[in-house]
Amino acid sequence: MFRRLFGKQEEKTQDEILLEQSLQKTRGGILGRISTIFQANEITDELWDELEETLIVADVGMETTSELVEKTRTRVEREGIKATKDAYLILKQEMVALLRADEPLQIEQPRILTVVLVVGVNGSGKTTTIGKLAYRYRLRGKRVVLAAGDTFRAAAIEQLQVWGKRAGVEVIAQAPGSDPAAVLFDAMRASQESRKAEILIADTAGRLQNKFNLMQELDKMRRVAAKQVHRAPHETLLVLDASTGQNAILQAKGFKETAGVTGLVLTKLDGTSKGGAVLSIKKVLGVPVRFIGTGEKIEDLAEFDPVAFVEGLVGE
Hints:
The chain is 48% helix and 12% strand. It is α/β, with parallel strands linked by helices. It has an eight-stranded mixed sheet, sandwiched between helices. Helix 1 (14-22) runs parallel beside helix 13, helix 4 runs antiparallel to helix 5 and helix 5 (62-78) crosses helix 6.
């Protein structure tokens, strides 16, 4: 198994299996050719040129591709590596290094109440992701409450209530058009007092009439959270549609500035051949991927593991 990258031999976890399955389409496309490149008899300039071209075509991005190839080539030369299979191993190690998070996920850190804001444009899978997160942590024995903070669309509130029912958790909501920050305030009070919740996950507006209004609403929600709960929000997760490739990164830049994003959730990865864009996300944004949506069912959400991801992306 690919765990040999770091001298380990372990059984795959359920999250690793889900990740691998979700990447079948990407692995079957351009990125699947990488292993073929390293089947050559020797390491040549042509090998590096072909690798660079393949990564760019696979939507990894020019800047990230250049860095990845340069770091791999430098290590190969410095360590005196001659076998292409060993050079391939170094490439995968460098991919993992690109993706690794610098800080642990805050959701399960010990505290009285953890507040998570979930942001993203409508259609990205934001509400579905919230339902999956709630289900995931309820199964782990956590008391979870949801806040219907996307009050500008009645359908968004109703959709969250449907997912809350599926996940077996309560949804705090107000009438459509209510102040999103007021909904969050009520949900935090309820979580701390009557519901005794450990995790509060709040939906937010996916689209307002302009970016300025969206920024104001998100900033207000963050300030309300910080006043009610120490250091809240503890995570602000941006949901991105992975099938949009590099366009998702452009979208994420705007949300990072607006919402103080701390982590990313990638959805629809199972239906795209553009998974290569994931390799450049952390480098470009400085924000780690935290979860991957691996399918349509409520259990189809995996915590992101860079080693498992690279294994699923390019194979052994």
